[in-house]
UniProtKB/TrEMBL annotation:
Keywords: Disulfide bond, EGF-like domain, Glycoprotein, Membrane, Repeat, Secreted, Signal, Transmembrane, Transmembrane helix
Organism of derivation: Albula glossodonta (roundjaw bonefish)
Main localization (coarse): secreted
Subcellular location: Secreted
Example GO biological process: regulation of non-canonical NF-kappaB signal transduction
Organism ancestry: Eukaryota, Metazoa, Chordata, Craniata, Vertebrata
Name of the protein in question: Uncharacterized protein
Chain segments annotated as transmembrane: 1373-1398
SMART domains, per database record: EGF, EGF_CA, LamG
Intrachain disulfide bonds: 98-107, 139-148, 177-186, 215-224, 253-262, 291-300, 374-383, 412-421, 501-510, 728-737, 952-961, 1199-1208, 1215-1225, 1236-1245, 1274-1283, 1315-1324, 1353-1362
InterPro entries noted in UniProt: ConA-like_dom_sf (IPR013320), EGF (IPR000742), EGF-like_Ca-bd_dom (IPR001881), EGF-like_CS (IPR013032), EGF-type_Asp/Asn_hydroxyl_site (IPR000152), EGF_Ca-bd_CS (IPR018097), Growth_fac_rcpt_cys_sf (IPR009030), Laminin_G (IPR001791)
Keyword Ribosomal protein carried by entry: no
UniProt keyword annotation of Repeat present: yes
Signal peptide: 1-27
One Gene Ontology MF term: calcium ion binding
Length: 1438
């Protein structure tokens, strides 16, 4: 209800704001929409721009109203967020009927299904997990079931059949079957023949645990795997090999024999193998050839090569003959029989142009005996060729090259300089642009880009070639309609301006509007005269039309230029654009498939040109970037070539009817057009023929029909420019989708319902059935087609899913979606020639195939059931349907029981009339499910749709409040967790014991036989007594011995106690579930078990059978009267101790009402609740950041990586496991490092480095990887370490010709070219790239030149490699300026020092040998005379 108040306040504020805006700003116009007083029930009408709004009264007293005209009673459920809401009309009261599992005012609270502790019957270790209207229990070991109520079956029942071996597991048992059997219990005999053990076509016969093979002839053995050996009789002769095969043998003869048994000796000379006249000699299995002179080989086929010894000298060519040879000394410079005589070639002065001739065969045999060493600038064998340095085209940027001797000269084009004209002269270096203009360097020129005046805070912009002139052309400009003024200044200094018009305007000052629109279909015919235009350009295909358009309709013609046989057209087809160019010799189409009919403006241009085909250019369309989209067809292939004079007519907005057949869309244009240009000339709406403008409106006026949504949120609004329509979502209909087809209730209050319809039309075998349904009943007939009283197609529910069938005996097609959940569901089933498809939530599911059926006139349709006469057939389809059906359709035709009362609009749809109906109610009604008062114990019943919810009192629970909640009053006041029982409650708790026993008695309340004792325990004590009871001679105890369980039993008729123990220890500090029970418990009623009935007893620990008594004994009924001592001599924790299924409470449980229970008889004794062990981790015993884990009276240290030991005190030696496959292991903290030998990598040196990766083997050689090396396996025609040299070696002149003046020399591995400076490559064929080493520094650009490089430095740097900074040199102080003054200062100081030394020395010499009393007085009266120089004798007398 608060939501309603907020909603009302927001509406009032919004309306007040809108009213102030309207009355304060647009007072020039008023509306009279409120004059008709549309608002009802005292509402206030507020006039808006194009509408009115009613402000409904919001008083505290009902009735309240809502709706556009305040004519509808207020519905509080509109603002409530719950699935099933009921409200009191006219008030703000509402009620939410919550689905199962939820509660609260808005059904947002998930009910805790674990609150009733459904899992706690299995003890405190059971965990309950809450779900939505459900829960599940996480069971401890040994228990299973929904509520952990069942014990896991073990091997004590001997479940394995056919001698299978039973192995106990935590979740039950596993049967290990003997050979020949399988299955969970070894119950299935294995068919050994399935594995086809019999071989070689044998027949397999299966038996119990075995099989038998019947062999075909030729085989034997158990599996017929042995082939009978036909070679046993040794049929092959002459040492031939006998090969045994299936039912036969083959003889493989030795060389020289043939025949079936190799009995025939072969004459090898019969084939004449010896060649070149040799004589053949036959032998056994072979032959020999006697060769004539000059031949050799097995068949004398090899002509002996007399040249092999190399008899020809000085590179003479040896020609092999039969039994001889001949030396060819041509081009060697030598003569003689063996080319041994040298010919003096340099005597004839063969070298030209001042070249030096070098003669000698030792080094230059390849050059016919001499070598010419050319002067620079010449090349060739005789240095006769002047090298053309201009051949490599060194001059760049159009410079002309002049060849010189060993040089060239470049004459550069204007704007370029440099040796090779490679430097573009920077005309901007002189900074010609003024007033902040940006200089852009061009070739032999520059351009000044003047600054924007706004960026400089100025009004007038700068202009002129150097931005030196203030542009005043736009002062007081006349540009209109938001056009942009662009000033300019002419070469004569005259100022002016141009107007850049916005879309929709034209003219010198943009004062002429170009926008016009069509609101009804029509067209305008334009005559396009050829005056002032090139007739040839129009008739040779150079045609263009451009415009801007805006529309919302998907199919219509924009324009057509031409006639019926030669035209250029633009259409909107399917929301996209289609441009067509058609002429008598061909046709072109350009399509833009994205949506353009979205109501926004779109720039469109169509261009045809000679050889360019057809181009469609768009700007502003969906999927187009800032540059727009371009679609081209026939580019470079076809030219639009219309007939002469055909392009002088143009239809805009439509065409006459006789043109419809050539159009894709047959509708005229509805929308707006502006900026229409034909062949570059504007077409203005003011210039249109007056007699054709009756369908044309100036400007573009458009109402936004779909904003706000007029379809009530129940459909899709389609804008049709002049109006709109709503495509309604089912089951809504009407102009604004505000009406809903009614629902019909079948089976209301248990009635049997059906409706029938006649089918008047033919639908064939391709049809669909669709309907809305709402039901909670999982079975029932939905839809059935009948012909002549028999059904041939049925849709029905089974287990909540939709099924389709042709008859009860044929398997149905089943939909994969559950629909019987009480929600409204749309069901759509399609039938296509027998194939069935199901649609749900946008997915289409194939359901398989049924027999093909067809719908014909005269058939009957039944909904929801069948008449009483056909009830016998109804059970096959699930009986009568109970629920609601809405908007049922067969092949699009609606089946409506209320079709007689339908509106005129509904009557326009195809629909079928009902022929019969029974017990069908209008609307979707619910049964009064609370009528039978299902809620017990004072629960309040609330009706939900066809269901009910019981609101129980706090002390009851269950669907019908049938279960008493004893724990509601929290009776376990002394502690413990309360658990409800059918007839009472229990207070469950764990407790810690230290040999302080508790005493319990049942006081005879146990009437059922005691066949089990169970407990949960946790201890590390190896010895002790957990439970003991004794009455007279009878005794039962459960204790610990050597950490295992020990059970002792003595019955009244026994002398000694029977003992049996568990195999597995339990004193390990973990919780264990222990159960001691009879293997075969009696099934008689309580108290009626014969005392003679006995059975073996078994110890079960965590669901595993751990020990069985060898002697059977009866139930422990005496425990119902005997005192039971718990934890008499036991140190540890206990929880959930039960005798005969009855709980032994550790604390006072407040006198629960159940009749069968144990009570404590030592009530004054305190019990330490909870399981607490000694705080072993309190002293933090784990070192080196280890984590201490308390394991109940024992600790364990989880060490940080790299540490080990009980207290993490030892550094782990990670190298101890020898992790390195190769190399040396170095131990690290929490890790290791492998130092790998060469050739290996990886964390463990496990990867052999593939040295062949990136290998240098050449000429198709194969690389073989080794350890830290690789080997190249060369093909036959190459050799060398990298297979880089041809084999046999190439020879100069004969095989190799060095290019670009390179010198060829024959070396060990063949010819080698020594290249001139500036060239490289095997044949000196490549000009060396001196820029490859990046010699230019500081961002300089390297230009490759012949045998050198040139650096084009970045601004601020100079030098051959741009290594020097201009600014450093400019700012640097010359060294002389510092050195000269500094030197002068040093000389002056030296002179002064020398003068001081001379003066001091002179003064000292003058004072030697004289007596000066004054000096002695100054020095002091105690001056020692020994320190004085002795005076001369003559001075002593004074």
């Amino acid at each position: 209800m608060e939501i309603g108040r907020i909603h009302s306040k927001c509406h009032k504020t919004l309306l007040l704001t809108m009213m102030m805006f309207k009355w304060g700003i647009f007072c020039s116009e008023s509306s009279d929409r409120c004059l008709s007083e549309p608002c009802q029930n005292g509402a206030t009408c507020v006039d808006m721009m194009d509408d009115y709004v009613c402000i409904c009264p919001r008083g505290a007293e009902p009735p309240l109203y809502m709706g556009k005209d305040c004519d509808q009673p207020y519905d509080g459920c509109v603002f409530a967020d719950c699935p099933e809401c009921t409200s009191t009309p006219g008030t703000r009261q509402f009620h939410c009927a919550c689905p199962r599992g939820f509660a609260g005012p808005n059904c947002t609270f998930n009910i805790d299904d674990c609150e009733s502790a459904p899992c706690e019957g299995a003890g405190p270790q059971t965990v309950c997990v809450d779900g939505i209207d459900a829960h599940f229990c996480i069971c401890p070991a040994g228990l299973t079931g929904d509520n952990c109520e069942a014990e896991v079956q073990d091997c004590s029942a001997e479940p394995c059949l056919n001698n299978g071996t039973c192995t106990a597991r935590p979740d039950g048992f596993r049967c290990d079957c003997p050979p020949g059997f399988r299955g969970d219990r070894c119950e299935e005999d294995v068919d050994e023949c399935l594995s086809r053990p019999c071989r070689n076509g044998a027949i397999c016969l299966d038996g119990p645990g075995r099989y038998r093979c019947f062999c075909v002839p030729g085989f034997q053995g158990y599996n017929c795997e042995i082939d009978i050996n036909e070679c046993a009789s040794h049929p092959c002769e002459n040492n031939a090999t006998c090969v045994n095969e299936k039912d036969r043998y083959i003889c493989e003869c030795l060389l020289g024999y043939s025949g079936v048994n190799c009995e025939v000796e072969i004459d090898e000379c019969d084939s004449g193998p010896c060649q070149n006249g040799a004589t053949c000699h036959d032998w056994v299995g072979q032959y020999t050839c006697e060769c004539p002179p000059g031949f050799e080989g097995m068949d004398c086929e090899i002509n002996i090569d007399e040249c092999a010894s190399g008899p020809c000298l000085n590179e003479g060519t040896c020609v092999d003959l039969v039994d001889g040879y001949e030396c060819d000394c041509s081009d060697t410079g030598f003569t003689g029989e063996h080319c041994e005589e040298d010919i003096p070639e340099c005597a004839s002065n063969p070298c030209l142009n001042g070249a030096t001739c070098v003669e000698g065969w030792e080094f230059y045999a390849y050059a016919a005996g001499y070598l010419c060493q050319c002067q620079p600038g010449y090349t060739g064998e005789n240095c006769s060729l002047d090298i053309d340095e201009c051949g490599s085209a060194p001059c760049q940027n159009g410079g002309s090259c002049e060849d010189q001797i060993n040089a060239y000269a470049c004459t550069c084009m204007p704007g370029f300089t440099g040796v090779d004209c490679e430097v573009n002269v920077d005309e901007c270096e002189s900074a010609p642009c003024q007033n902040g203009g940006l200089c852009e360097d061009n070739v032999a020129g520059y351009t000044c880009v003047c600054p924007d005046p706004e960026s400089q805070g100025e009004i007038l912009p700068w202009g002129g070639r150097h931005c030196e002139v203030r542009l005043t052309g736009c002062l007081g400009h006349a540009c209109q309609n938001g056009a942009t003024c662009r000033p300019w200044v002419g070469e004569d200094g005259r100022h002016g301006s141009d107007c850049l018009c916005p879309p929709g305007f034209y003219g010198e000052f943009c004062g002429t509007p170009t926008t016009f629109s069509f609101s009804v279909p029509g067209f305008v015919l334009l005559e396009l005269p050829l005056a002032n235009r090139s007739r040839r350009s129009v008739e040779s295909g150079d045609v263009s039309v451009s415009l801007r358009l805006r529309t919302t309709l998907p199919d219509m013609l924009v324009f057509l230029r031409g006639d019926a046989n030669n035209f250029l057209s633009l259409e909107v087809v399917g929301g996209g654009l289609l441009a067509r160019a058609v002429w008598e010799g061909g046709a072109l189409e350009a399509r833009f498939m994205e949506l353009v009919s979205d109501g926004t403006w779109l720039d469109v241009s169509m261009v045809t040109a000679e050889g360019a085909g057809l181009a469609l250019v768009l700007k502003g369309g969906a999927g187009c970037d800032g540059d727009g989209c371009r679609v081209e067809e026939g580019v470079g292939i076809m030219t639009f070539d219309p007939a002469p004079g055909s392009m002088t007519r143009m239809f805009v907005g439509g065409v006459p009817e006789d043109y419809f057949d050539i159009m894709k869309s047959r509708s005229g244009f509805i929308g707006c057009v502006e900026d229409l240009m034909v062949d570059g000339r504007p077409v203005l709406p003011q210039d249109l023929p007056p007699d054709q403008t009756q369908d044309v409106q100036m400007g573009c006026s458009k109402t936004e029909w779909c904003h706000p949504d007029p379809c009530s949120g129940q459909g899709r609004c389609v804008d049709l420019w002049t109006h709109y329509k709503c495509d309604c979502h089912r089951p809504f209909h009407g102009d604004s989708c505000a009406q809903e087809y009614p629902s019909w209730t079948y089976g209301h209050e248990g009635a049997e319902s059906f409706s029938a319809f006649d089918v008047p039309a033919y639908h064939g075998s391709n049809f669909s059935v669709s309907l809305f349904l709402r039901t909670l009943q999982q079975d029932g007939l939905l839809f059935q087609l009948r012909r002549q009283g028999a059904p041939y197609l049925s849709l029905f529910l089974r287990m909540g899913r939709v099924l389709a069938a042709v008859d009860p005996e044929t398997p149905p097609a089943t939909a994969p979606v559950f629909v019987a959940d009480g929600e409204k569901r749309l069901v759509e089933v399609e039938f296509q020639h027998g194939q069935v498809f199901f649609r749900h939530d946008g997915m289409r599911y194939p359901l398989g195939a049924l027999s093909e059926v067809g719908v014909e006139p005269g058939d009957l349709v039944f909904l929801g059931g069948l008449p009483e006469a056909d009830d016998a057939d109804l059970q096959a389809w699930g009986g009568h349907f109970k629920g609601c059906l809405q908007d049922v359709r067969l092949a699009g035709a609606r089946l409506d029981l209320d079709s007689w009362n339908s509106s005129l609009e509904e009557a326009e749809e195809e629909g079928y009339l009902p022929s019969d109906a029974q017990n069908v109610e209008l609307g979707c009604l619910s049964d009064d499910t609370c009528q039978v008062e299902p809620c017990q114990n004072g629960g309040e019943c609330t009706v939900t749709w066809n269901d009910f919810v019981c609101s129980c009192l706090v002390q009851f629970t269950g669907r019908t409040c049938e279960t008493r909640v004893w724990c509601f009053s929290d009776p376990c006041v002394m502690g413990g967790r309360c658990r409800d029982l059918p007839d009472g409650y229990e207070c469950l708790s764990n407790a810690t014991f230290g040999s302080d026993a508790l005493r319990f008695k049942a006081e005879g309340s146990l009437v059922a036989p005691v066949t089990s004792v169970s407990m949960e325990l946790r201890t590390r004590t190896a010895e002790g007594v957990v439970l003991r009871a004794e009455l007279g001679a009878e005794l039962f105890s459960v204790g610990l011995q050597n950490s295992s369980l020990l059970v002792r039993v003595r019955q009244a008729n026994s002398v000694e106690a029977l003992s049996f123990a568990s195999r597995r220890p339990v004193a390990d500090g973990s919780w264990h579930r222990v159960r001691v029970s009879m293997v075969d418990a009696p099934h008689q009623g309580a108290g009626s078990t014969p005392s003679s009935f006995s059975s073996p007893w078994v110890i079960t620990v965590d669901g595993w059978s751990e020990g069985t008594s060898h002697v059977p004994f009866s139930s422990l009924d005496f425990l119902g009267s005997a005192p039971v001592l718990v934890a008499e001599e036991f140190v540890g924790c206990l929880g959930n101790v039960r005798v005969g299924g009855i709980y032994l409470p550790f604390v006072d449980d407040g006198q629960p009402p159940q009749p069968f229970r144990f009570i404590r008889v030592d009530e004054g004794k305190d019990v330490q609740l909870g399981c607490m062990g000694h705080p072993v981790c309190l002293s933090q015993p784990c070192q080196n950041e280890g984590t201490c884990m308390d394991l109940f009276n024992q600790l364990s240290c989880s060490c940080a990586p790299g540490w080990e030991g009980p207290f993490c005190e030892h550094d782990t030696d990670d190298c101890a496991s020898q992790p390195c496959l190769r190399g040396v292991c170095a131990d690290l903290l929490a890790g290791f490092r492998c130092d790998c030998p060469k050739g290996y990598v990886g964390d463990r040196c496990e990867v052999d480095v593939d040295d062949c990766e990136g290998h240098a083997c050449q000429n198709g050689a194969t690389c073989l990887d080794g350890v830290d090396l690789y080997t190249c396996v060369c093909p036959p025609d190459f050799t060398g370490p990298l297979c880089q040299w041809p084999y046999p070696p190439l020879r100069c002149e004969e095989d190799v010709q060095c290019e670009n003046g390179g010198v060829c020399r024959d070396e060990l591995w063949g010819a080698n070219c020594t290249c001139r400076p500036g060239y490289a490559g095997d044949r000196c064929e490549v000009e060396a790239d001196e820029c490859a080493s990046n010699p230019c520094r500081n961002g300089g650009t390297c230009l490759d030149r012949f045998n050198r490089f040139q650096c084009v430095c970045s601004p601020g740097f100079i030098g051959r490699q741009c290594e020097n900074s201009k600014w450093e040199q400019r700012d640097r102080i010359p060294w002389l300026v510092v050195a000269v003054p500094l030197g002068c200062c040093c000389v002056l100081l030296a002179v002064i020092g020398l003068i001081v030394m001379v003066m001091t020395a002179r003064k000292k010499r003058q004072s030697e040998g004289t007596y000066s009393p004054s000096q002695q007085e100054v020095a002091g009266a105690r001056l020692e005379m020994d320190s004085m120089l002795k005076v001369p004798p003559e001075e002593r007398l004074i």
